[in-house]
């Protein structure tokens, strides 16, 4: 454990489709639990992994076990037991993303409180991987609707948590229904006696792996988080960059591609920044670091691998733009600031569904991370004005202004204009590229002004007698038009289901690249080789050109508007085993994971 890990995912003998998915996701270097678990699991050995939540356990067992799945066989080959429905869903989604290039692959999360009928239908259709809670797995075993006699592997994820929740007897019962020669991987944060007994009973000569928890973070670093909406991350970041008292920044993202993309977007907004990733030559990386040290760069966008060992005194702020899956990575990231007794600031962007990672980081570091309020537009304006005043004072105190005083006096005499008006004109010339007060049309979505978006108020109208009544649909439409609701039209995108596109990918890309609020991105429809989306009809030509080049799942969108006749003629061939989602809600997420529906069946009348 003392030696530095220099392995890459490409060093493992993973199946080619999995290597392709890992490369596309942007994983560069395995975490300690992944580096030590993947080789023995690939070799078919049983494994005991002692590691905290948030250390990358899912990839540690999913990648090697999926490498041996036979997608031509439609029966359960891998069973993952998880203590909660949330973890079961999370693991199933991760496995689906890793297996995106395995044709015919299906994973099914099974948990209590959901429709048994739909689960039965999905099992009858055939799945290769089942991820479930012990209680619901037992229900299916009793009904004989889940056959485990041909399992290749069983994973016990967070075994100590299953013990704490009273599932340990159910876990043993399930293990007794599995073939004797199956492989077992047991992961747990601790090893109480009951878990140790299961390991002795059901695992064969297991490889034991122990990952030390993250060390305590430096007390000089102030840690904060903002609960973020993915479509607003860039606007949130720029507000923070404007308002925070800072010197230099390092912003961490998950993938190499993201370093370049984010650097380009920030440069377009006037920031001096550069990318730092593993694909860059050593000479170019060293040049970027030197520019950061010298002050010609203020911001570096980096991956974990590229930033290893980075020590630049100027760095006052670390932003985790993408939350790390590994708590050790978080500690190493924020350690880029607050060094040698200096103060430092660490800010973490956390999507609502990533809060479990926030909790894991807090447990591993032994420190709570405080919630932060996003700076308002008024804060941004105040900061710009304060900086402008500081610049004026610095010039007045440090420069010889006598020649300019003579020039202004001469100009005032020639044109009979007051000094205040001349000063205002000069201030305008200096600040015209970055107005002191953000213009209304360039302001980010108002949803950013609150940490948690508030519910949209119900519109009411007043009759002549003063009584408030709910508006009829027609009245609401007229009201929306009167309030400036834009005309909408359908657009076609050259990315579809066969490319791996999901609603969240399309909404996120369009919102980030166009600046449109997500409420104006509607009716996303995913077809086999293309998609359609409803957007404002009057998109500016520059926005259209930019969106054409914007990539989703590695393909340029090539967006183009459709006439009403074209939109009606677009075909969406249906395949019997696939149900496509059409949503009018931008935030709705389309998953290819076969997840049971939460909706109750409507009663027949």
Automatic annotation (TrEMBL):
GO terms for cellular component: cytosol; ribosome. Residues 38-209 form the Helicase ATP-binding domain. Its EC number is 3.6.4.13. SUPFAM superfamilies: P-loop containing nucleoside triphosphate hydrolases (SSF52540). Residues 594-605 have a biased composition (Basic residues). One of its GO terms (molecular function) is RNA strand annealing activity. GO terms for biological process: cellular response to cold; ribosomal large subunit assembly; RNA catabolic process. It catalyses: ATP + H2O = ADP + phosphate + H(+). Residues 439-488, 558-605 are annotated as: Disordered. It comes from the Bacteria. Keywords: ATP-binding, Cytoplasm, Helicase, Hydrolase, Nucleotide-binding, RNA-binding, Stress response. Residues 460-480, 582-593 have a biased composition (Basic and acidic residues). HAMAP family: DEAD_helicase_DeaD. Belongs to the DEAD box helicase family. DeaD/CsdA subfamily. This is ATP-dependent RNA helicase DeaD. It comes from Igneacidithiobacillus copahuensis. The gene is deaD.
